[in-house]
Amino acid sequence: MSKSLKLLAGTALSLSLLAGPALAEKMGLGRPALPEEVAAWDIAVLPDGTGLPVGSGDVFTGDEVFAEKCASCHGDFAEGIDNWPVLAGGQGSLRDRRPVKTIGSYWPYLSTVFDYIHRSMPFGAAQTVSADEAYAITAFLLYSNGLVEDDFELSNENFTEITLPNAEGFYPDDRAETEYTVFSGEPCMTDCVASVEVTKRAVTLNVTPTDPDGKPAGTLPPLAPAEAGEPATEVAQAEPEAAPAAEAPAAEAPAAEIAAVDPEMVEAGAKVFKKCAACHKVGDDAKNAIGPMLNGIVGRAAGSVEGFKYSKPMQAAAEAGLAWTPEAMAEFLADPKGYMKGTKMSFAGLKKQEEVDAVIAYLSTFGG
Amino acid sequence: MSETEDTAKPAGGASRRAFLGAGLAAGGAVATTGLARAQGAAPDPLITEVQDWATAFGDAVDAAPYGTPIHFESHVVRRNVEWLTESPVSSINFTPIHALEGTITPQGCAFERHHSGAIELSKQDYRLMITGLVEQPLVFTYEDLTRFPRTVTTAFCECAANGGMEWGGAQLEGCQFTQGMIHNMEYTGVMLRDLLNEAGVKPEGKWVYAEGADASSNGRSMPLEKAMDDVMVAFFANGEALRKEHGYPVRLVVPGFEGNMWVKWLRRIGVYDQAVESREETSKYTDLMPDGRARKWTWVMDAKSVITSPSPQAPIRHGKGPLVITGLAWSGQGKIARVDVSFDGGRNWQEARISGDVKPKALTRFHLDIDWDGSEMLLQSRAVDETGYVQPTKDALRKIRGLNNVYHNNGIQTWWVRADGEVENVEVA
Known about the structure:
The complex is a heterodimer.
Chain A: H1 3-9, H2 15-19, E1 31-32, H3 35-41, E2 56-58, H4 59-69, H5 71-74, H6 110-120, H7 131-144, E3 153-155, E4 170-172, H8 175-178, E5 198-201, H9 263-272, H10 312-319, H11 326-334, H12 336-339, H13 353-363
Antiparallel strand pairs in A: 2-3
Chain B: H1 2-8, H2 16-27, H3 45-48, E1 91-92, E2 113-114, E3 127-132, E4 138-141, H4 142-145, E5 150-158, H5 175-179, E6 182-191, H6 192-199, E7 207-212, E8 220-223, H7 224-227, E9 232-237, E10 240-241, E11 251-253, E12 266-272, E13 287-288, E14 294-296, E15 304-309, E16 321-330, E17 336-342, E18 350-351, E19 353-355, E20 364-372, E21 377-385, H8 394-401, E22 414-417, E23 423-428
Parallel strand pairs in B: 3-12
Antiparallel strand pairs in B: 1-2, 3-4, 5-6, 6-9, 7-8, 7-12, 9-10, 9-11, 13-14, 15-16, 16-20, 17-18, 17-21, 19-20, 21-22, 22-23
């Protein structure tokens, strides 16, 4: 058993032994922390309720505070916008291929929710949420996860009565028993496996940042000028048989692959886009205007541009999982109102299929 | 060797230069003709003509009071993968390990992970508080910290998510992007145990919680035993003050443990009878297992290695012949005992050469010098640490941890070296 593992396992070790002889006596450095100072900085809330401030807040208030301070990232229903954290739902999904880890499905302790809201949220304006507001938001999040009724009020009094569904879902590191025994021993040096085949290639995903020459960003420049006489080595090997389209890890892969774009189409699309440009911006520093900015729109989840207030139907479509694939986009652009009744986009639509295709090609050149 | 030597042996009075030339060729396993003058080759003007730099002045001494790398090296920088995160202030970038050598990571290109951005906190404004189950809660200024006895230690800091994007299969094209959430620095600071002793830990204190001064606070709990063992409150890295992005003026150094616990802009140490179970140690940095339950407190970073060159961003451009294979190995359990390299995707292995010192819980450099025949290779490296732990394949890890794990991926990395010297990130089975 390694030293570190002993540390994890053993709490019986004598501190005086570990502390070492160097500083058995105090140095007399520092000064006593004043009670007000401790109160200001020691705001941690622990699973057993240690550290909870006096206060309370109900679901209704929490809904309002959440809409004001949290929903721009986490969504009105705590469903999470773009890749911002999803806070509600997902219960029963932890064994799925794409588990949804939320407060209701994954987090073990309610204290963590309160603690984090109170000390670190909202993002970019930490410590602006009062204790009562933190109770209210926490109550709302319990409600969003179906764990309390809508008339629920959370306070420091009843806080520890709430147990999150996944409270028992965690166990301490067991790698010493489940992995280290398996992975230790004299390693094989020759003929360790019968055959080796390439099964996945990063190149098929094409999600790596690139330099202008198309090589992976940061590729070392050549140290010598290319020699004219030297023939390019053959590269042409057959594709490995067992190379399936590689699968991107859940939630961390970009929404869609971008097809190769025809420069002429892009140019044509740039002209068509003038019809759109009154409301939509693209390119460097593009911001939301009358319509959402459109960098990265092709392949992206619908209704997902940060900070843009979408119509109800668009929000609903987004929740239902609509993604702006070239196909979906083509339908939408041909007849916006027909495709999505109630959309804010007051544009009659592009009559010609070539225009539709061109503008999509053009938009696909603007990455998110 | 002998044959070459024979043919080059001076029949009598042949120049020393001719002999050396032949010997060098044999040593490098290059055909002797390779060093012969190519037909019609012109003399190299870089040698035969006087260059500007050989006749005029260079920069004066104060051209750069604090120097940065020469512009020829401008590609050697931290890089991020924008689609990974929603906001660059709660994000990560990657150390250009494909372009570095040795073991020490310069601060200026060592990966950054912030949860609310890198804050600006002066030494004068710095305070560290020790609270909780202690005899006397204390406040230290930066100056107070400098008066405790100092220690120097070298340690790697690896994000628990390093390689996480590769869990589902080869995804990013580059050693920097697949394995670059790591750096290794020489720290100077004071031992956390000395500060805790100063406050006097009460017998019921079992856990130490560290948090930062930034908006995220990024609090993490660790057992008191670890805090009293090798954890350092550091204020120098690689001989200079910590850089802002690495926690200036004071950060925690937690050797062997996942990078998230190395709290930057350290402002409070709390002693408790239980783990705080903060957001970073529950909803994040826990390992979801196939049965739907999750491992927590998986602090130690297990043994791992990676070949940094050749790799996708460091292709072989010089053709066949002598090739230096270089890489890094490390273990959160202690010292690296050995590193093996495979050219055929793990069928056969040979031991690499450890270069320089091997320090516990620090990066170790390995090299292997080969005569590349220009054929394809499936390059892998495999670390073995002093506990006898052998770096596993990704499949071996998946067999235990399933597909939904993200953190603590220390599986073997494969580079597919093509005949033209280009390198791809692949996975083999």
